[in-house]
Design brief:
mainly alpha
C-alpha cells in the first residue's frame, strides 16, 4: 500500500493499524475485504427499514453494519453506527433518525474512497 492510498484510507476513517492487526498483517487480504465493503447491503437495508417504519429490521441492519464496519476497522462508520443501534435497540425512532445524517456522511465517504481503491 503506497502512502497516497494510506492517506485516503485514513481520511475515510479507516484504522489501518487496527485493521492490519485484525488481519494478522495480511495487507492484501485486508485491502480485498475493504474493497468489498461498498457491496454490503446493510446500509441500504437500514435506510429502507427506517423509511418503512420497521424498527426491528432497521435494528438488525444497523447492528450488522456496525459489525461489518468494526471488523474492517472502518472506525468512522462504526462510531456513527453506535447511536443509531442503541436508539433502535430501545425503539426510539426519532433518535435513530436524528443520528442518521452522521452515519450517512461517514458511510458515503467510506464507500467513495473504497470504490476508488
Amino acid at each position: 500500500m503506497d502512502e497516497q492510498q494510506r492517506t485516503r484510507l485514513v481520511q475515510a476513517g479507516v484504522d489501518l493499524e487496527g485493521g492490519l492487526e485484525r488481519f494478522m498483517g495480511n495487507e492484501a487480504l485486508f485491502l480485498k475485504c475493504l474493497r468489498r465493503f461498498p457491496t454490503d447491503t446493510s446500509f441500504q437495508q437500514l435506510e429502507d427499514a427506517l423509511s418503512a417504519g420497521d424498527l426491528d429490521g432497521a435494528f438488525m441492519a444497523a447492528h450488522t453494519l456496525k459489525g461489518v464496519s468494526g471488523n474492517l476497522s472502518l472506525d468512522a462508520v462504526f462510531h456513527a453506527c453506535l447511536p443509531v443501534v442503541e436508539a433502535l435497540r430501545c425503539g426510539r425512532r426519532e433518535e435513530a433518525e436524528a443520528a442518521m445524517p452522521a452515519l450517512r456522511n461517514s458511510y458515503h465517504t467510506a464507500v467513495l474512497v473504497l470504490s476508488e481503491e
